[in-house]
Every structure is written in C-alpha cells, then in structure tokens.
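For practice. Supply one:
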Amino acid sequence: MRVQLTPAQRPGSVRSRLSTAACVLLATGLPAAAAADSGTQLDTSLLTYGEQGRAKVIEPTVRVSRLFSDGQTLSGQIALDVITGASPSGALPSGVTPPATPAGGDQIQTVTAASGGGGGEHAPDPGAIPVVPFSDVRAALDADWLKPFGPLTPSIGGHFSRERDYQSVGATAKLALEMLHKLTTVTVGAAINRDNVFPSGGTREPLADTTVIISTAWNPKNVTGGQVGVSQILSRRWMLGVTGSRSVEDGYLTEPYKVVSIMDPVTGITVGQLTENRPTRRDRRDVLTSTVYHLDKDVIYLSHRYYWDDWGVHSNTIDGKYRIQFQNDKFLEPHLRYYWQTQADFYRLGLIQGEPVPAYISADQRLGPLRTATIGANYGFTLPRTRGEFTVRAEYIVQFGKTNPNEVVGVQQGFDLMPPVNIGTILVTYSVPF
C-alpha cells in the first residue's frame, strides 16, 4: 500500500518522522489514517517478474482513491496478471536416456500443465528437474472503504479474481483504535474467502495415475482469518509494531497438477508417478514484529516474521530497509531480506517402488526446506513540471534448498534435486493526486 504525503508531512519534521514510520508499520497490516485534504489520487504500477528458465509474470495495476475532507477514503483497483513459462511438475529426473527404458518404466512422462496450458507427453532431460510449460491470465478487482470516527477508524474491503482454473471471492474488515494521546494504536481485523478450484480437464484421483479423472465439478476452498495488532510510538523518532494473525483453510488444498515420482529401489530410475494428495485443512499462524527509526534525514526499517502451521512448516523472515533521503523529494531505499523454512511433514522427494503409499504426500518444492535471499533497492523521484511521484524498484532473489540423500536411491543421489532458482523483479509505479 502506498501513501501520498502532503507537503507538511515530508521528511525533516517531527510529524514527518512519525508519518513515515506509520506508513511502514501500517503496511504490515495496521490501517492507515486517511489524508486530511480531499481529492482524488491515481496510483499505477507495472510489475515484471521472471524466474530463470521458469515462470514469467507481467502485472499492470491501476488504483483510484477518492479522499474526502472528513478523512474518508474510497478506493478501487484493477489488476491483470499475464503468466507464461514453465513450472516444476514435482517429478524427479527420469534418470534414463530415451529411448532406453527399464522394464516397466516410463521414458515419456504424461502430465497436465498448470492452468491447463501446454500439458501432454514430455521426454525430459534425464538429469534435469522436469518442468511443464503453461500460460494463464488472471484478472482481479478490489474495493476498499475507510472512515475515521474520532479515535476509531473502521475499514472494509472486497476482492474478486478469476483465472482459468481458479476463482476467489473475499472480504476484509478492520477496526483501529487510537489511545493514549494517539501514541498507541490497536487494530483488530478479519477476512473471509470463498474460493473454487476447477482443474483443467477435471479433478484427478489422488495417489493414482495422473490420467484418472474423478470429477469435473468445482472444488471449494474456504479461508477464514483474523489478526490483532498494536503499534506504539516510543519516542519522537522510534515506532514499534507487533501483529499476530491466524488463518484456517478448508477444502481442496491439493495442487492439481503436481505429481510424485516412483523410483526403482536399486537404480533410482523413475518407473512411474502418482498425483499428490494434501490434507483438507491447514491452520496458519504468524507473528510480525516491525520497527522504524528516523535519523536526522534517513529512515531505518526492520522486521521479523515467524510463521508456523499444522502441516509442520515453520519459517522466519528477516527484512531490512534503509531509506536515504535526498533533496527535491528523491530517495534511495536499499533492501535486504532473508527467508528460511522447514519442510512439511508429508513432503517427499519421491517414493521407492514397493513401499506403502502414505495418505498425504507432495513433492512440491514450495513445501520443502527452502531458503531465499533478496537484495534490491527502491528509487523515488519526481520530474520537473509534473505533479506525480515515480518509484522504480529492482530486486534479485535467489531461491535454494537442500536434499536429504536418505530419501533417494541410485542415480537420483547424483542429481541436484533442488537447484538454485534465480529470480528478478522490476516494479515501476506512478502516483499523482488530481
């Protein structure tokens, strides 16, 4: 969320220090105070995201906000995601060079692509992680309303998005209370989503051959969540915020296009594959601690997020930014972030032929022991004879994991089953009041 500062709020004053700090803490989930002046603001952005050899995303966004003199804000946003590229299927490298095929084995892997595009039969590189090409377009609409009533500020919002095989409808509500001469803000919020998953070609039978279709109906997925947060101004320069949240997902939580490979117990060559299966409930919780300190001109932002769920995933995220303020409203904000997580209880690289098939299993690397490191910067500036503000953010992300050698046999032990993934993002935004 972006907040356009009025001239009186620009860096250099005590009011600016607190406003700047509040913007960061409020971006973590606490509601922002509406601008005092009435008017309309236009925020536009263009995001480009690319994974080396995998998915690519282009997302233009337009947001219009109407600011009223009583502090009320009414906003609407439309976004469009154009997604192309390839995604790992969850399968292991075949370990065999076509056309040589072990007895009972598969030199050709039959898969359905994510979002239904580009699936079919593939003969992957025997030592490479199998990926499946896909393409999709996602459209999203959002609307938000906020209005202060003395120390209380309620806000509500609605969301709708649709893509080829997924639809999401949701609503949010928050209530912020300012106390102790506006030095303390307590926020409570709730959210609800009623989503539906309708895989291309139909829903596949879990833990079975990938061609077995059991239904063509939509699969419901419901998400209910809440949060409680408090922000405290500790001094004229220092602000601290803590937010705890919980969400519960029920329904169809399986990735419909992911598979799990079956390995020969001696050679490790893949001899088949099954569709994955995940529990139908997931309880997620996290605690986010954020702090902002305003120096004479510059601003330091630090945050830590601890997350855990009943699937056995635990994660930590450390995030730091340093905003360097220049003249003429220009700024440079370097950014560092590090994330690490444990694997889900039912995550497996693959199955060995002949061993019992567990009730739940997934080889999706996003449920594995992941690490990501991010380095980037955000640059903000204005142009002569223009009213708006531009920002350009560029980031480089490397995602990597580790393989448990006890989970694989034969040739699979010689492959890099969780190779590093290089990711780049560029976000250009323009905000203008009118």
Q: What stands out?
A: DSSP finds one helix and 23 strands in the chain. The CA atoms of residues 249 and 398 lie 29 Å apart.
